[in-house]
Amino acid sequence: FVEFEDIQNASRCLQYFQHNLVQLEGSTLHFSYSTRTSVVTHEQLVQSLASSSRVLLVHVVNLMYPVSIEMLHTVFARHGTVEKIVTFQKDQSVFQAMGQLSQPAEAAQALQLLDSCNLFTGCNTLKIQYSTFGELTVKYNNAKTRDFINHDLPTGPDSNTLNGQMDTPFGNNL
Q1: Closest among 102, 114, 135, 111 to 47, alpha carbons compared
Q2: Mean pLDDT of all residues in the chain?
Q3: What is the rounded average pLDDT of the residues 144-160?
Q4: N or C: which end of the chain has fewer CB within 10 A?
Q5: Closest by alpha carbon to 169, among 124, 112, 111, 113?
């Protein structure tokens, strides 16, 4: 991203590069306007999210055992009211989820205390960061998505049972 002092300079730059293509290591650079009003650093973004975000992005790495919504709910509920959880898994080595707590302070506490903790001894390590999502949308209550506030959602297509019982293998440090 490049931030200009005013819209006129940004417009001149955009017009120039639309007519004068630039190649960088064999790739053509394309210029366009951003919907952002200013450029922020990663640190500024994290600081901003820390004061306002209720949604956390969770990666479970060093995956040796299955992870469920119920398991994540149990772990995160120790730090506040868990409203929603959405899970997804792109490959067998990393499990991902987003969890929404009721207050930003609860999300901040969960991130601070749970990041880099293991769900099981020596494995299933939580890597947590703030999500840029302000609110999670949950359409179904099933094994992959859950709205803990709205219990009346349908289970949806291809839903797994909600009644699967899990042991509590979290250890005492979570």
Answers
A1: 111
A2: 85
A3: 87
A4: N
A5: 124
